[in-house]
Write a structure and sequence with these properties.
Largest sheet: 6 strands, mixed
Transmembrane segments: 174-196
Oligomer: single chain
Order of helices and strands: HEEEHEEEHHEHEEHEEHHHEEH
InterPro entries: BphY/WalK/GraS-like, HATPase_C_sf, HATPase_dom, His_kinase_dom, HisK_dim/P_dom, HisK_dim/P_sf, Sig_transdc_His_kin-like_C
EC number: 2.7.13.3
Structural class: alpha+beta
Bound molecules: adenosine-5'-diphosphate
Distance between the termini: 35 Å
GO molecular function: kinase activity
Organism: Geobacillus proteiniphilus
Amino acid sequence: MNDKMFKQTRFRLTLLFASLIVVFFVLFTSASYMIVSSLIMTKQRQQAIDLAEEEYMEHKFELLNWYYKNADDDDTDESISAHHSSMPFFYYVITRDGEVIKGEESFPEIRENILHRIHGWRPGNKDVRYETVTIGNEKIWFLLSGKQVLIKKIYIGTIYTGINITEQVYIVKVLTGVLCVMSIVFIGLSVVLGYYMSGRAMVPIANAFKRQKEFVADASHELRTPLSILQSSIEVIESEEKGKLGEFSLQVLDDMKDELKRMTKLTNDLLWLARSDSNAITLTKEWFPLFPVVNELIRKCRPLAEQKQIRFTVHMQEDIMVYGDKERIIQLMFILLDNSVKYNNENGQVSIKVERNRKNVMIEIKDTGIGIPIEHQKYIFERFYRVDPSRSQRQQGYGIGLSIAKWIVDAHGGTINVQSEEKRGSRFIVTLPQPTIIESEG
Ligand code: ADP
């Protein structure tokens, strides 16, 4: 049980660490991507704008020529040449009628495509557009820009330019890919490292915890002998000296017996927990009738119940057979019954209901006592947990009972649940799985 607790804590620490690393890497990757891509793209934009400006200065006269020439005759001499250097990707001088009168291009085969996209676009000052075209299987990214040519505020055409940014886009893509892969690798590494580190951090805690458990086991074991000697000594005094003792001494003897009973119970519980931790408890399962067990338990609880005038009611068929470790199931039911009396009010009630179907036996112990506040309900099965010590103080106990009950139920593969309302009472429901062969055996 405690190993499980340590494993859970280790797992939680690793998860926390890994989540922090994931957040860190996601931020790092996105920031790197944004910074690098914006640096590269800002530069490309600027180049596209500069190019548009250059080509404008160089070729606006061609449009002017066309304009004036056009006024007289319709004949224009179109000339588009193949491109000489890697820059620019293309430029086209296009009249307001959509006629290309001059240009230069790297890939004549995509001219149609580009002209199609340009068609109707009148770039404003420093306007830039991202476009893609495919040549064969290759996708090409380019930045489209341009400048309008006006004469006396009359629009006569546009000089469009494009620069090829495929390489830059490729660099940004590769960089993003590399960053993502590296982040995943580092996240993986940090999870492994986090698991290792949290394991190391747990070692001293686990050791201290182990020593403390060993101490509890040894101490409770060592206490058993003196306690039983004390017990038998008191019994001897009681039987042999009772007549000679005065009233006060008899009272002292009674108190001693009570305290001894308490100490013996605590010692046994602690020893039991220590044994369950070291898996030294094995279950011996058998079929047994539950009805006599319930009656016997009620008889055991009666002295305390009578002090508070608590009534028991039992709802179960007398022939119910249960499969499990009889001693442990008695112990489990005693813990629940004892609590239902301890935490009950004067004139309260305790009802015991047992039902079984083909797969399970369901044991319900309900009281009309002080109840358990909702916020405490999920902790009461933990070791040494007591609801608000001040209210439980009136009752002897160390918060061990329900943790033992839970252990027994778990060992049988069953479940234990509580429903409770403060000041109204509590209902504990235990379900124990049963083998289906009862029909043939019972
Ligand atoms: P203990 O009774 O020794 O304190 P348990 O493990 O048996 O320890 O119970 C844990 C806590 O749960 C108790 O301190 C008590 O406050 C609460 N509790 C258990 N059973 C009941 C019940 N039937 N009614 C109200 N409170 C209960």
